[in-house]
Amino acid sequence: MDDSTDGGNWWKRLSGGLKRTSSSLGSSITALVSNRLLEPETLDALEDELVRADLGQELAARFVDTLAQGRYPQGITPDEVKAVLAGEIEKELAPVAQQLEVTARPFVILVAGVNGSGKTTTIGKLAARFRSDGKSVMLVAGDTFRAAAIDQLTIWGERTGADVMAREPGADAAALAFDAIAAAKTQGVDVVLVDTAGRLQNRAELMGELEKMVRVMRKVDPTAPHAVLLVLDATIGQNALSQVEIFGKTAGVTGLVMTKLDGTARGGILVAIAAKFGLPVYFIGVGEGVNDLAPFTARDFARAVVGLDS
Questions:
Q1: Which residues contact 161 (CB under 8 A, 6 or more apart)?
Q2: What's the pLDDT score for residue 250?
Q3: For labelling, which of 57, 86, 87, 301 has a CA lying 20 to 30 Å from the CA of 15?
Q4: Is the pLDDT of residue 3 over 50?
């Protein structure tokens, strides 16, 4: 998935989408370091601000360490602080900034996440990306609990030219996934995107159903699903950490998509998640438009989140 032609536009959307986070972080940094030397209490206050921005304790401590070891006899400017911080964030994120490679046919992607995370919309946007790469796509309306989710996926199918496999509300999601993968094999479909019900992590029976979907899929294709993407809503902050943990145990999450980064001042949570779990972050979303979901790059995110130019 090559986004090189859209680089400038994406940077504008990314930096604009992260404006609430970068403004909050930037104003804190400016207030703390303007016209003063880097005293221990200033460094402590900076560390507190980074933790408050959900960047995580480890990165905050490392950043302050790096600043403390620097030579700033005349003090330090806010932009210099931001540049050091962007460098530390980029180091943290570089290992998880990975491309989602399609390695099988059909390449089955199970998409999980709680209701309201932007899961079904993300599936539609992913379908649009794969279709623009010339791949055939099948969407599977596995969120059989909600008629609205089935309708939403059907609309995305029409919009993107993807096939849609759906049943009536309340149908067995695992059986639907089985039939969809069997059909995709017969039809030579390139990518199968499977929606799932928006399970709350404390609903054991719903988590059990997710495990069942994976089990049943493997009866028709022992290697499926080839990717399990967890869609996370950035606006929930620290709760995202527990979602990664629980969905990871249940569904064997292989990678993350973070949405709604434009709706929060706490976009730093992505850094804390990367530090704790080391899972690939394949895509991030900064708006509602089909082009507002793009592959994740560590440098761009690091500079945008602290408010520096690309």
A1: 131, 137
A2: 80
A3: 57
A4: no
Q: Give a three-class secondary structure readout of 185-252.
A: HHHCCCEEEECCCCCCCCCHHHHHHHHHHHHHHHHHCCCCCCEEEEEEEHHHCCHHHHHHHHHHHHHC
CA-to-CA dists, residue 54 to 58, 59, 206, 277, angstroms: 11, 10, 29, 15
- Residue 87 · residue 35 · CB < 8 Å: no
Which helix H or strand E contains 165, and what residues bound it? strand 163-165
29 pLDDT more than 60: yes
pLDDT over threshold 70, residue 7: no
Strand pairing category for 293-295 and 281-285: antiparallel
Helix axes 147-160, 119-132, angle to 10 degrees: 20
State the pLDDT at residue 201: 53
Looking at residue 116, its amino acid is: G
Residue 67 corresponds to which tokens in the numbers above?
């600043």
Burial class for 47, CB neighbours closer than 10 Å (0-12, 13-18, 19+): buried
